[in-house]
Write a structure and sequence with these properties.
globular, 1 helix, homoheptamer, mainly beta
């Protein structure tokens, strides 16, 4: 359905370029997860290192190494 | 199931024509994301640049470069 | 699973007949989107022109040209 | 996975027998939609004519001809 | 992924054995639907006859013949 | 994507080993269902016998033989 | 869509390396499940041993051996 658009930045390409860099995930339940992106798969499941979870009203929580399910992700910001 | 309708503007065509232009995304949780559309894939995952997040009651938040999951998008308006 | 029923109006056929006509979308979050249907794809993603968003308690909002994700649509009424 | 059970009324068969008859749809958000079933597809997207929407506390709303997304339907009652 | 387990009662087998018997459906929105199971398909869409809808605080509602979408069903109890 | 890991207990294997034993299901809406696991299919639809439903504030409810849709299950504990 | 990126830690690889180690699951309904990861499948359904469920306001609950549906998981942290 989609051809090859050389002028586009594909979501996948941006994620690939972000490996080993810091990203900030917004999850569907409103949590933010900051950490270093170690990898991802075709479902946009992601691996973060040194992940820190932030929720509006509670203390940041250190999660360390974490697998995040793509289906719970709203957006991935590069930092 | 759907043939070729020359008189139609397909969603994909409109998105393609919007690359490098400003768009405004409405997300399922009510957030608005404004930014320049850099690209998208067949799941309607989108790449925005210079993205700004607006939520009714809180300050706009600069997100910079961001990948947005298509499954969380309600609509994409051209600006 | 479904054969050919000449006596049926298929959803797809009705949408096709509605291109370039005004429609009113009801979205899952209760929003109404009125506009001219420019096209749609097999996921029922839709393109509206001159779209106006109405939410119960807030002012109508002009959206102009907009892609609406089929997965967020409840119903499409012909006007 | 499912063989042929002559003693069963398949959902699809009942819908087919209901074309051009009045049905009442219950939607996931609690709305009721009454109207004449004009057709449906394999996703249980439905076409209703002379549709009337009823919500507990608000006035019935005449929708006329409407496409309803199968994914938002809870049940379809024959009237 | 799953082989043949002669010692198992498969969900499909139990449903098949329940055709023309009374069942009670629990739906995702908390409704109960009681009625005679007339048939079902591979998506667990179900046909009930003489269906009665019960909601905690409201009067039981007679629905007659009804198609119930499998995706809204939590459980099916044999009565 | 996943090879053969002899050192793993696969979810499917554990379920198979649990047939004819008591399990406790946690459902998405917070209900608990206790009963004897009679079988399951590849969608993790489950058959329970002598099922008892527990909800925080209400009386336990005897459901007898029940088919539970896998898509509504959070977890399955062996008892 | 995704090629082979030797520099990436794939979600699947991290899970595989975590078998027989302690993990902490965050579920969509806010529950935390701590336990030893015994295995998982391609849907990210997981098997935990000696699982303990923690909910903000209630007592931790010992679940023992448990199958957790991947579709209800937000994240998996290594401990």
């Amino acid at each position: 359905m989609i051809g090859y658009y050389p002028f586009m930045v594909l979501p996948n390409d941006l994620l690939e370029a972000s490996v080993n860099r810091n990203v900030s995930l917004l999850l569907k339940d409103g949590r933010l997860l900051d950490g270093k992106l170690s990898g991802f798969d075709q479902y946009m499941n992601l691996v973060l290192e040194d992940a820190i979870e932030k929720k509006n009203d509670s203390e940041p929580r250190r999660l360390g190494k974490v697998v995040v399910r793509g289906s719970t992700v709203v957006s991935i910001s590069l930092m």
